[in-house]
What does this fold into?
Amino acid sequence: MASSGRREYIPLEALNTNAEDNHEEAEEEQPHRKRRNLWHRIDTTSVLTVFLGFPLLLLAVTLLALFWHGSMKAIDGAEPEIYWVRVVNAGWATRLVTVCTASIRTVVAFQAGLVTAMVAGIVLETTGVPLLLGPFYSMLRAVKVAPSNLWTATNFQPHLSRFIYALVLIEVLVTAASQFLSTILLSDFANGTFTQRSNSTNVNVLNTTDNGLAGGWWYMPPAASWTFAELSGSFEDRSGFHDTGHTFRAFLPFEEEAQRTKLHRLRGPVPVMDHRVVCASPPLINLSLDATLESYVHLSGQIPTENLTYPLLIDPDSQPYINFTCELPTPNFWDNNTVGETSLCIPKSRLNWTVLIEDPLIQPDGFPEASTLFIVLDVVSTAAIIGTLGTPAVQTIRTDGPWTIVNNGSAHIETLRISACLTNLAMQTFTVGMNSTSDNLEPKTAWDQYTQSYNTEPSRLQLGVSSPGNTSSANHRGILTLDPRSQWEIFHPPADTLGVDPTPFFKAILIFPTFLNSYLLNYTYDPGVILSRKDPGIIFGNAHPSHVDLFQDTLITTASPALAVQALLTRIYQMAYYDQLVQLNSPVAAVTMFSLTAAIPVQWTGFVLGTVLIVIHSITVVVVLVRFVRSAEISFIGSYWQTVAQVVSKETRPILEEADRMDDGAVKGWAKREEVVESLGVRRVLRRRPGGRVTLGLVENGEENLI
It folds into this structure.
């Protein structure tokens, strides 16, 4: 474009010819100009960005930190704060993160724009920029765009010191990462289980004295593997006997499985039993094995009550002998190494003797039937039984731990092993506390087609009989833990309700199938049940296969009749209790805490990463702000007219006269062709001219910038 086409430049600011002509007057006024403080050099938006931005960031991070802390506390089993529970129950967990991150991103965006404006001011007043880039940097002070615009619009790196360049690079990366802050924080979320706050819940108390608990529980499979609360001692394997130790168990008074499995804490009245079982090798005399009819094989004999060793503490004052006649499994198979053929019976002629067990939950005084003697008869050789004719006398030949070994009389082959097991069937309602730090388990007893038996391993783990002296934790077993016995309180029912019966489980246990069968055939068998795996369908009086497998698997795995009897009786107790529970209508208040599964933070990783980004951003903003205060004096943030006026000088006027119809590329090309400006690549800084105006210009004759 010809130079003749140039138009005379008219400044945007009001002309002051007197100031231009009289330099001395301007120079005289210059020293009296006061240095403006920071708050006079930034606009209202920037002030709010500084004064409100950091508190908002701190508030958002604090809210998130409290929520994360509450989640970790709840997951660990502690009682969460009420505000945390309300947020989660209302489904606001993820919404809280969304709202907080939206606030954080908004503040970060505003502060990043302020950082861009202040960096532009620092550059214009310190290192300077090429003349053709002056308008861009000048306008950044007013529009306050994202730091990334410095890269997209210009060759950025050469115009900053390394320190400022590093700060801007960090802010660009942090600003970009903050766009994903919500995703970063939500990466900590998963389905977590926590305990809700305590509430009052009505529970029914087992206070009936009728026969509701009597039934054919031995014939039926259990409806579930009900969880429970337990306080147990250690298993003892001593010479001549096995002792499970005190095993206090409380049944949960809830019909729904979800309530039982989600229960983490309870303080209230519940039925408690001591499932302690002690089995010892008994002294046996006058034994007789009757195998005349293979379907009704039975063993008769006596246990002398004098000079019994611990734990067979039986009162001998009234009756010197305990007589028994117990039915045995039908020997359908000729086998010298028989496994899985057992009989369980209770001597019924007990009117004149009392079973004693050390430190019972319910003393036998007034309830002599509470303490019960079970006789476990385990077949060692069905071949020896089948080969027996008539009613030969048999005898004991040795003891083996809690077992007394009996031969078949004629061939002197080990035929049976017998153990006498003591337990206490009484129930007492106590006000107890129980707790769990995780959800409880009620495993299913599934049928295994391959083994043609029930898979009892999960149930045995829950019952604590998966191995001898099982030491699995309550959480691993999926049960609750009872508070110490010293904290129990005897429950006194309200005056308008029935009293609590301590013997509701007696008939559930003692009414055995063979009790009826013995009268039909004019036999005098003691009540008992057969626990046989050999074609149990044809054996009258055989327990349901699920009970048989639970007993036999426990006996085989632990080699302890005490643990096997304990597991079996516990399951029968539970079947009777939960069948009766649905019929009860005696509500009593209890304090409960249930767990809830919801999407909550389960780790700190995303939160820590998000917090680090915010901290880095805040430090960057503060550093740039301090640098701006110390290095920049002339720049006003948010002032549009200043951004225009300060790039208008004698050096830029030729360009301004031609740039109204050109883009930046055309302007740059025109300037190079016309050589209207010398040294376009040399940096210019903002400086006060002799006339008082502030414009871009070179530092001449060693003159220093006003910074």
In short: The two ends are 39 Å apart (CA to CA). The chain has a mean pLDDT of 80.
